[in-house]
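quick one before i forget lol
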Amino acid sequence: MKHLFLYAIACFFLCTACFEKEEEIKVEEEIEVAPPEVDILKCEYIKDFVTRDPNGVPKEPRATLKKYLKGEQSIFETNTGGNPDNRDLVIIAYWNTDCKPFCDIIRSGIVSNTPCSQSFLDSLVYVETMWKDER
């Protein structure tokens, strides 16, 4: 019985010694670096686009302002809305944070001066719809 008690104490010290030597494993979380926030409404064209005549006739689909990422750069899309099959002039333009247009897509048979390449459109990652014509 005396030996059994000594074995129990020895096992206890061995087990607790193992736990004390166990190192903590720290897992570092990856921190995503978000691009800086941009107040796109400082751009005159986009401000006019969003605040245009509230009494105008809305088009289907509705006009939108969307935000995309291209790498780490924010790109904004203005879409006038409408349906080119109904003779609506639909212009989709892409803008950088300096209020400069990259390119556009005109859907009504009119040729664009700065057409968007398919590789540019494929490189865009959708972030959010910032505004939609709700009239």
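fyi Residues 60-132 form one domain.
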